[in-house]
Amino acid sequence: MFGKLLGMMSTDMAIDLGTANTLVYVKGQGVQLDEPSVVAYVTQNGRKVVHAVGSEAKLMLGKTPFGMEAIRPMRDGVIADFEVAEEMIKSFIQKVMKKRSLISPLIIICVPTGATPVERRAIHQSALMAGARQVHLIDEPMAAAIGANLPIDEPSGSMVVDIGGGTTEVAVMSLRGIVYSRSVRMGGDKMDEAIVNFLRREENLLIGEASAERIKKEIGTAKIPDNGNGMSIEVRGRDLMNGVPKEASVSEAMVAKSLQDPVSEIVEAVKQALEAMPPELAADIVDKGIVLTGGGALLRNLDVVLKERTQLPVTVADDPLKCVVKGSGIVLEDFENMKDILAPDV
Ligand SMILES: Nc1ncnc2c1ncn2[C@@H]1O[C@H](COP(=O)(O)OP(=O)(O)OP(=O)(O)O)[C@@H](O)[C@H]1O
Q: Sign (positive/negative) of CA torsion 115, 116, 117, 120?
């Protein structure tokens, strides 16, 4: 009763604190914030003073003047810079709490299943320091499965593969619990890096990670085109032979080649999961197939390649970038009935 009253007076929220993007779902209001996990700061007297957060800070990556730095405080799905991450969470919380509430919020926050107890405590602590009255953690693939409308209550395995910026989580849910999970430190960031390395090696062209991400989103594909080189786009970078800026044409076939290793790693993680799980569960997956969530699921033909190499049905969830936050939001809205699926306290 008292808890319910507190809930009515506070702005409770669910946060998908991602390596690439942070999304916030506010109880009763839906997804209210969707911004890159980037912070720009200046250091004054040994303290990092925030200059910009989110979309504004992302524009500054790689372009900051002396004395200022723009960084991504999350790496591989966990906090890499505690001080900056806390400031980022604080700033996002303040952004969604439009009117001042007297009662601080209850916050559900997502963690990768591969996060260690120390990393889980760091995320828990940073949300508390950012002003939460109560913090609960939820495993990312569980949130993704709920957000993708998978039947997690049934006594039958449902497999989700959540491909984020820093991690890929392969998990099977049954009877409201995770029965198998595997987290690999492979995701969209490694794909961007692979594009940078390929162009450096094969074309003597040095480009930044933001350009690589743009190439991936515009013409990226997990499958080498059957005929010819596919579409091409113009890309600017530095010519490594003579050090001057140059423009070059990058084709779909080149990008597909550069993405072969990251794509294979994702396929391998799924195959290892299928080999390691009990046969009853594997039989369920053969029937129901695999659902892809996370931004990486938007890479063209990734579903096709996974289908070819696993011989299982593969589908991409609706709005894959929002599955995790929507799933956590569903738990937040029905907290009393769904709190059993939260991760254990740290
Ligand atoms: N159309 C697209 N094609 C390929 N990749 C894409 C596309 N759109 C977004 N991405 C990639 O998806 C990734 C971000 O996904 P998402 O927001 O699910 O990750 P995250 O939750 O921040 O990361 P993590 O779960 O690892 O902490 C980025 O690497 C981005 O480049």
A: negative
